[in-house]
Amino acid sequence: MANSDFYQVRVSKSANYDLQNIADYYLLTANNNVVLELIKRIEKAFKSLTEFPDRGSEIPEMVYIGILQYKQLLADPFRIIYRIKAKQAEVFMVLHQKQSIKKALSQRNLYQ
Asked: Phi/psi zone of residue 86: left (φ > 0), alpha (ψ -120 to 50 degrees), beta?
């Protein structure tokens, strides 16, 4: 794939806030090595979107309520919620797989 075929990944303020909360939580409940490994896993997933932005799957909870433009990419144990717009993958949320997307949606505006 030529460089011009690569997508940019834009991480929203909301997703950066999620990443900070993830780091803070695991620093309290585990240790630095765990935090570094989890962040590395998430960053690797972000990077994969530059070459394969369509690799994510539909999000059943969002499809059910008629929100079709978002995809999810799993970076165990997290779900990366993003959409593709032009040549950009826009990351809006990073949630633990056990977190409720419905609750997260009610707390944020994905149409910013």
From this structure: left
